Amino acid sequence: MSQTQFKRQLGPILLILLGNMLIAFGYAKFMVPSNIISGGVTSLSMVLARLTPVNVVWWTNIITVSCLGFALLFLGRTNFFRSMVSSVAYMAFFAFWSWTPFHLSQNPIADVLLASLFIGAGYYCCIASNASTAGLDVFALIVAKKRPQFNVTLMLRVINVVVLLASALVFGWVALLWGLAFTFLYSGLMGRLLHWFQPFKKMQETD
Question: Is 154 inside any structural domain?
Fold first, then answer.
């Protein structure tokens, strides 16, 4: 890799690391302590674990690997590589924030608002860098690439709502309501940031 190529890759990678630091912070310090379901891979894995003999850890790994496979097939090598970086960074940052001794969780309303702020900004950093979080956002990116009239924010909301509705069968309707509030808040913030600072482009990176 030439020096020019390295510099061109460094900026997006740093933004991806920042994004995952924010996302992990939001989940570890606000979502998990308040038991707020998010409509993402973890929630889907917990539902599938209740319906099958396979446990949550295995389902999480299966879904994550599958999402990375779809990223490689439909979003290209650049997105796949950066999504790999994103997934490793998230696991590392989530473990770090989970182990830190300070607690910020206050009540569901404050936790949803603060989590939405950090996670929405974190998702923006990843998607603006042509990366997914190696989660269900991969499918939102694929649809937005193939059908530009369906933007990432809309598709991410649809996917999250479907998962949340399934999760309600396990966690109950109160958890569903908090999850819906979180979904619309964080995806709305992400959408506004993409609109203001870097309008979503059709996989602007070529492989």
Answer: yes
Q: Could you tell me if residue 2 is inside a domain?
A: no
For 118-161, give the DSSP string. Answer: HHHHHHHHHHHTT---SSTHHHHHHHHHH-TTS-HHHHHHHHHH
> Which tokens hold the place of 80?
């796949």
Backbone angles phi, psi at 132, to 5 degrees: -105, 180
CB 29 within 8 A of CB 101: no
Q: Whole-prediction pTM value?
A: 0.82
- The 10s digit of each residue's pLDDT in 116-148 is 999 999 999 999 888 888 888 999 999 988 988
Print the domain residue range for 29: 8-197
Do 53 and 184 form a contact (C-beta atoms < 8 A)?
Answer: no
